Amino acid sequence: MEEVTQIATQVTELAYALDTFYFLVCGALVMWMAAGFTMLESGLVRAKNTAEILTKNVGLYSIACIMYMLCGYSIMYPGAYEGGVFASLSTLGSGLLGSADNDVATVVAGDAYYSNLSDFFFQVVFVATAMSIVSGAVAERMKLWSFFLFSVILTGFIYPVQGFWKWGAGWLDAAGFLDFAGSGVVHMCGAAAALAGVLLLGARKGKYGTQGQINAIPGCNLPLAALGTLILWLGWFGFNGGSELKVSDVGEANAVALVFVNTNMAAAGGLVFALLLSRLWFGKADLTMALNGALAGLVAITAEPLTPTPLAATMIGAAGGLLVVFSIVMLDKLKIDDPVGAISVHGTVGIWGLLAVCFTNPDASLIAQLKGIVSIFAWVFGTSFVVWFAIKKTLGIRVSEEEEYEGVDISECGLEAYPEFTTAD
Amino acid sequence: MKLITAIIKPFKLDDVRQAVADIGIQGITVTEVKGFGRQRGHTELYRGAEYVVDFLPKAKIELAVDDDIAEQVIEAIANTARTGKIGDGKIFVTDLEQAIRIRTGETGAAAV
Fold first, then answer.
1. Coil, strand or helix: which one is A78?
2. Are the beta carbons of A270 and A317 closer than 8 angstroms?
3. CATH for the A2-413 domain, from 3.40.50.10330, 1.20.210.10, 1.10.3430.10, 1.10.1740.10
4. Alpha-carbon distances, residue B27 vs A233, B30, B32 (angstroms)
5. Model ipTM?
6. Which residues in chain B have their CB less than 8 angstroms from residue A341's CB?
7. What is the pTM of this model?
8. What is the pLDDT of residue A422?
9. Which of A290, A230, A241 is nearest to A263 (CA)?
10. Which chain A residues touch B41 with a CB distance below 8 Å?
């Protein structure tokens, strides 16, 4: 009898190890999305602004990690751990987050099925994803250090507060708002912050003509943009797949497999339909729209990758792919200049994803989804607007016209991404 | 001697090189250039927004030839580079005062 108990304990411990391992690997995949955003954005800006967008991306990732450790995590998940900023500072060295990880007794009792630190790791890469969305929208004209200052506030405060509303078992969760992996909490959040920034920042010089014409500013490196999109596509398996939180029994393993399949199908649907629409509308197969279409499909399925069938997931993604093309053209008409289409991909389609939950998940309610959309958008947009405005009035958020013409690589970083190439502008 | 300068569509460059080689021309100089003629530029769409390509890529070839072969070369270039569509390019012919082969110091017709 004692032997049976011992084996049962070992199986539970193994399941704990497996779920923790799964969580960490998914977190690492999501971390790699930072590479995806970095490559996508560096491909869609002009060559003269490449080094600066790379700096922004590696910088914001690191800032997000530090801020989330210092205070973001404890704001988002209060009560889960003792500590927060002061506790973690005072106990530095004895425990990163100010509390010990689970012991065997807790695990065997069934109170925990993965390591607390693996949860922190998985969450920290999500906040970095939200912040990555902002950098693309404000590219080619924003001051580097003003952007970093905003990163500190978004990742340390703005994101965690609305994250708590949903994932920290806050009021939105209680209201029945459903957001599996973060179409709203992560993607729309990033897009709302980006929109506030872009409105205060203004368009790139030369983007809109004096007679109201919209000028194209082609990106400098489409191979990098395509690579970035595919990296994001890969990372998304961690993003959605990891959000199932558990893999160690038959039911959970099947669920994870379905999430992977649906995530993949939605991206494929988004890409194909964005490509078709751009061919029909513009006469040419616009690669950048196709890439945005794949990402739109991924954002659309993120709110609910578990309840749709693969065919339904493809259609949800396809609708995202169509929507993103309309949204990009529409924002351009409104003179909201977003060089990489981040606001459309993550904002417009994020909203679509949250609404689409109602089609496949019988537990969803349209009212609750709308509540979530409005409150998250209002919170993030409002606070971001105030912060951007304060930075604008103090440090300034935009480089000078001359610096913008010369390229922010030189004015902000003092180096060029491609010093041995000559470029047209 | 004549200096023949031809602006042609880049995709016709190989054919033109072959055509002039076939009539005995032993050297040409090629430059990638941009410009516009009556074809003007054209507009493209990027992410739904128009942009104008003012200068189209062309190939410029230069050949120094003896007077008695000039007509034949000009004809070969024109016939080979012609597609019949706007943008086929132009051929300019100028008198060439002198030519010198640097290695040997030969001048005039012997140098081209």
1. strand
2. yes
3. 1.10.3430.10
4. 52, 10, 17
5. 0.73
6. 47
7. 0.87
8. 64
9. A241
10. none
